[in-house]
Write a structure and sequence with these properties.
With 267 residues, the protein is α/β, with parallel strands linked by helices. The chain has two domains: 142 residues, 3-Layer(aba) Sandwich (D-Maltodextrin-Binding Protein, domain 2), CATH 3.40.190.10; 105 residues, D-Maltodextrin-Binding Protein, domain 2, CATH 3.40.190.10. 38% of the residues lie in helices and 20% in strands. The chain contains ten helices and ten strands. Strands 2-1-3-10-4 form a five-stranded mixed beta sheet. Helix 1 packs across helix 2 and helix 3 runs parallel beside helix 4. The chain is globular and about 50 Å long.
Amino acid sequence: MRAALEARTDRGRRALLGGALAAFAAAAIAVTPAPARADDTVVFAAASLKNALDAIAADFAAGGQGTIKASYAASSALAKQIDQGAPADIFISADVPWMDDVAKHDLLEPGTRVDLLGNSLALVAPASYAGTVTIAKGFDLVGLLGGGRLAMADVAAVPAGKYGKASLEALGVWDGVKDHLAQADNVRSALALVSRGEAPFGIVYATDAVADKGVKVVATFPADSHPPIIYPAAIVKGPRAVRPRPSSPIFARRRRPSASPNRASSS
């Protein structure tokens, strides 16, 4: 079952991301003079997209569609780098506020922002864990930790950490567990803490969980316990910007209502 879920999730994410990147590239070719185009496309992407985007980059290269150079980190770190002038063509964030931050600095090409993907939050344990967990109001998360720590991405800045904190607050268990955290720079680093057995449990995106055979999903957090997990994408202004027409139908076809993006975890 795990293998089937992993394959289905990977196919869905690759199809959506690949289609979006192809649309961005097509727009660039259509409206940018050839001498001004770089040989590669620099994508700043949330760490949780690494598996899917690496595969897409390989497909692009094999098909002669150009080179995708991806930089992965927490959305907060990437947004700050873009704000400070880091060269990027495309930004894919794991939450809306950090994309809003870049937009606030007038660094997004008009008409290119889309809600690309969605996700869900999972409680993970090492693959050897044999117990069961039910997530509900007031569940004994501290007891589950057994003196260990809960791995999470930075709850103050990293989207996965912020979503996790919001969910724990909604479930009434945050105050009890907040002093038992092992916080990481991004969600993949939090996942690695569990995979290596350094933390008994962790909160990550469901799509991250299926990408690491060293962990298992023991429960999924209720969708109504945290804000919707949305991955917005946009083209970045600047010397590298591909500058498509704001009204380009290529982007119109990719646009999704903010409230109902394609869910990466169920594609």
